[in-house]
């Protein structure tokens, strides 16, 4: 009751949804994709197999996996006009701004895969998006570096191809480091889907009106960009650089505790997890593995470990159940792999496109699906007569 109108939460309140893709237990720190734990998938699967699992509901046989991989690689190139489109951006454009633009532009290039009620067209649109996101992300990176675009090489795996498109240059041979490829594939697996987070809910809400699937994914990219969501991995690195030295950690913990200070400790806390984010645990180990194998001594990793240690013992963080989340360690690995911080959320978007499009398919296929229409609690004035300007 607002004193004016009775708020009826039952009327078309379709802010929530029914889904069988991903299960999270925030208190226990559990994350399952179609029943398989993220720990096992990160350790034993590969990104395209997880993509198939999310899309189709089961782990594929070897033959089915091979044909799915081939089907995806068949779509890795983008229309040459998209290269022209991308070159219209300023060189200093943020890669996420470019991704919002070029992925939305895909809706102007592919008219043969947008009849959302045709299963075949839904499948083609889904595979096009999964295949082209790494190509577009690599183009956004190359453009920011002032280097020529690389075409995909379909002899390579998904992660190898992405690293090739990002880091190879015409002037010298480039061989993908298997350590980097393995870390890249693991990072893609860990970011693939996460139930009804802000960007996935954005894709579902946009898709619920029957909008073009490419445009819906562009909407998800826009939502993911925020520093409270996918933009946190970039914000974590910027925060660690600002903290600079472990002696400064108490000052930043105090700022994070101060309700009058808008500062929050990026990489900590979660809407759902009130325990360790299981993805952070996998990434923490991967961080040490990758930096060790690459022989990288990154003071930011030591600083991050010190910050984690202090924050986990801080009474405020204990009381608020704030633990490191998926973004806390991902940036450190990505930095060690050679990516600039501006590309971190782009890589998150490449991976999350699998979750977004799997959730979109699940929603579109649901015969009970209706247009999303979140409700509001009205707090404005009651009805009143118009007042002529001379009497205001
Ligand atoms: C992702 O939803 C998903 O699944 C997202 C994601 C995915 O895979 O899609 O997991 C990816 O977005 C991970 C989150 C990345 N964001 C950050 O690391 C940014 C820093 N984190 C915070 O902004 C915050 O923790 C949020 C946005 C993630 C969650 O905010 P909430 O919902 O307000 O968190 P909460 O309700 O659990 O907060 C409880 C209290 C609040 O204080 P009170 O209002 O109770 O006084 O803890 C405070 C918050 O203000 N708090 C923090 C904090 N996070 C929460 N205080 C200081 N530092 C923080 N990081």
Automatic annotation (TrEMBL):
- In its UniProt record, which GO terms are filed under biological process? tricarboxylic acid cycle
Catalytic center residues: 270, 327
Residues folding into a coiled coil are none
Protein name in the entry: Citrate synthase
- NCBIfam families found in the cross-reference section: cit_synth_I (TIGR01798), PRK05614.1 (NF004126)
* The UniProt record lists the keyword Chloroplast: no
Keywords attached to this entry: Acyltransferase, Transferase, Tricarboxylic acid cycle
What is an example of a Pfam family matching this protein?
Answer: Citrate_synt
Instruction: Quote the PANTHER family the UniProt record gives.
Output: CITRATE SYNTHASE
Q: What pathway annotation does it carry?
A: Carbohydrate metabolism; tricarboxylic acid cycle; isocitrate from oxaloacetate: step 1/2
Q: Which family does it belong to?
A: Belongs to the citrate synthase family.
Which GO cellular component term is one of those annotated? cytoplasm
Reaction equation(s) it catalyzes: oxaloacetate + acetyl-CoA + H2O = citrate + CoA + H(+)
Q: Which SUPFAM superfamilies match?
A: Citrate synthase
Name the InterPro entries for this protein: Citrate_synth-like_lrg_a-sub, Citrate_synth-like_sm_a-sub, Citrate_synthase, Citrate_synthase_AS, Citrate_synthase_bac-typ, Citrate_synthase_sf, Citrate_synthase_typ-I
Q: What GO molecular functions are on record for this protein? A: citrate synthase activity
UniProt entry tagged with the keyword ATP-binding: no
């Amino acid at each position: 009751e607002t004193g004016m109108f009775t708020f009826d939460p039952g009327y078309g309140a379709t802010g929530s949804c029914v889904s069988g893709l991903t299960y999270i237990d925030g208190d226990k720190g559990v994350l399952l994709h179609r029943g398989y734990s993220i720990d096992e998938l990160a350790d034993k699967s590969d990104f395209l197999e997880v993509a198939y699992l999310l899309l189709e509901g089961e782990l594929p046989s070897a033959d089915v996996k091979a044909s799915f991989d081939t089907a995806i690689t068949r779509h890795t190139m983008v229309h040459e006009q998209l290269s022209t489109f991308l070159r219209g951006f300023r060189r200093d454009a943020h890669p996420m701004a470019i991704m919002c633009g070029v992925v939305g532009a895909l809706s102007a290039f592919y008219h043969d895969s947008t009849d959302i009620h045709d299963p075949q067209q839904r499948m083609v649109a889904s595979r096009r998006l999964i295949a082209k996101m790494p190509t577009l992300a690599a183009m956004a990176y190359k453009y920011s570096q002032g280097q020529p675009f690389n075409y995909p090489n379909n002899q390579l795996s998904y992660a190898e191809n992405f690293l090739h498109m990002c880091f190879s240059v015409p002037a010298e041979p480039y061989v993908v480091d298997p350590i980097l490829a393995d870390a890249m594939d693991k990072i893609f697996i860990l970011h693939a889907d996460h139930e009804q987070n802000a960007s996935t809910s954005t894709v579902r809400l946009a898709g619920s009106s029957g909008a073009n699937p490419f445009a819906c994914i562009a909407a998800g990219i826009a939502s993911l960009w925020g520093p409270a969501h996918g933009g946190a991995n970039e914000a974590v690195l910027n925060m660690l650089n600002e903290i600079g030295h472990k002696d400064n950690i108490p000052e930043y913990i105090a700022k994070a505790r101060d309700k009058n200070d808008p500062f929050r400790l990026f990489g900590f806390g979660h809407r759902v997890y009130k325990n360790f984010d299981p993805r952070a645990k996998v990434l923490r180990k991967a961080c040490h593995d990758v930096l060790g194998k690459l022989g990288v001594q990154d003071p930011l990793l030591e600083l991050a470990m010190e910050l984690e240690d202090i924050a986990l013992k801080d009474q405020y963080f204990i009381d608020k159940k704030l633990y490191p989340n998926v973004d806390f360690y991902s940036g450190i690995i990505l930095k060690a792999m050679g990516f600039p911080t501006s590309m971190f959320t782009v890589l998150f978007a490449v991976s999350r496109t699998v979750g977004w499009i799997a959730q979109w398919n699940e929603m579109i296929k649901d015969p009970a699906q209706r247009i999303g229409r979140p409700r509001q609690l009205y707090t404005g004035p009651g009805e009143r007569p118009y007042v002529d300007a001379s009497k205001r």
